[in-house]
Specification:
14% strand, 2 domains, binds pseudouridine-5'-monophosphate, binds manganese (II) ion, globular, Indigoidine synthase fold, alpha/beta
Length: 313
């Protein structure tokens, strides 16, 4: 497997020493945020994780190889609007790699690569989920079944609010995915803190999250979990404001016949235009907040999972 994967030296050392490592995805860079904010955010996320005392590992597929930890030039290539980087989910990994292509990894494929590299914590913006109208078009993000099968804790600000949140929660319940409110009893809704949906689990510290991770995986209960970390109050867009914009954007996407993996990037970009960039600032703030919490969780988990500071011990 390692023949197809390059782990950056800093990440390899951290993993061998049992130091906290936080995985970051690349679809948010290539397809989620516009240039140049995407590159600035990617660099700022890595810096924030380091500042908290953990090691960042941004994940992508470049030249047909899985990259765990990227150089500045590689980040630039992913961020650049002129580069040819395909959005890669579980379905697409083998094809892109066999063809030697470049791929930006989604939540699902970042989880797969992180788990292969031995990384247990991953921070992103918002996960994919069950789309509104899924009863007709079957549009359910591959992020959800991945959370059910791959052992990585994903820190997000909730499912993106363009989705059907109650159905997303039903799916996660059916497939046994813990959704843990980080300092909250309510599912956060990406740009907004409130969704009106109560959670069944809450943790008020990184150590409390790490204890759940350790217990779940020590029991051999396979699959990941979602750590639902609300956007900071100062950065949120209140639900009534964003809800109206989302409805308009969904109607336009429908009228334009947008389908498949284009749906999420199309909606995010349209919502950005309609809010004059407010949704972009909010998205950047929430993903930064998730990176910091992810670092704290990775450090807490390393302390109980590898107490001798040696992963292999
Ligand atoms: N979070 C963000 N912006 C994004 C995404 C997440 O703040 O662009 C990406 C993630 O990569 C997620 C993907 O996996 O959107 C979901 O796409 P889809 O609905 O096609 O599964
Ligand atoms: Mn989809």
């Amino acid at each position: 497997m390692n023949e197809m994967m390059d782990i950056a030296p800093e990440v390899a050392v951290a993993l061998a020493d049992g130091v906290g490592v936080v995985a970051l995805e690349s679809t948010i860079i290539s397809h989620g945020l516009p240039y140049p904010e995407n590159k600035q955010t990617a660099l700022a996320l890595e810096a924030a994780i380091r500042e908290e005392g953990a090691v960042p590992a941004t994940i992508a597929i470049l030249g047909g190889r899985i990259k765990i930890g990227l150089t500045g030039d590689e980040l630039e290539e992913l961020a650049s609007p002129s580069s040819d980087v395909i959005k890669v989910s579980r379905r697409d990994i083998a094809t892109i790699m066999a063809q030697g292509g470049n791929g930006a990894t989604t939540v699902a494929s970042t989880m797969i690569c992180a788990a292969m590299a031995g990384i247990s914590v991953f921070a992103t913006g918002g996960i994919g989920g069950v789309h509104r109208g899924a009863a007709q078009d079957f549009d359910i993000s591959a992020d959800l079944p991945e959370l059910a099968r791959t052992n990585v804790a994903v820190v997000s600000a909730g499912p993106k609010a363009i989705l059907d949140l109650p159905l997303t929660m039903e799916y996660l319940e059916t497939h046994g995915v813990p959704v843990i409110g980080y300092g909250t009893d309510e599912l956060p809704a990406f740009w907004s803190r409130a969704s009106g949906i109560s959670l069944t689990a809450r943790a008020d510290s990184a150590g409390a999250v790490a204890a759940i991770m350790k217990t779940k995986w020590s029991l051999g209960i396979e699959g990941g979990m979602m750590i639902a970390n609300p956007v900071p109050e100062a950065d949120e867009i209140p639900h009534p404001i964003i809800a109206k914009v989302i409805d308009e954007a969904l109607a336009e996407a429908e009228a334009e016949g947008i389908k498949g993996k284009e749906v999420t990037p199309y909606l995010l970009s349209l919502i950005r235009q309609k809010t004059d960039g407010a949704s972009l600032a909010c998205n950047q703030a929430l993903v930064m907040n998730n990176a910091r919490v992810g670092a704290k969780i990775a450090i807490a988990y390393a302390a109980i999972a590898y107490p001798k500071g040696q992963k292999q011990a």
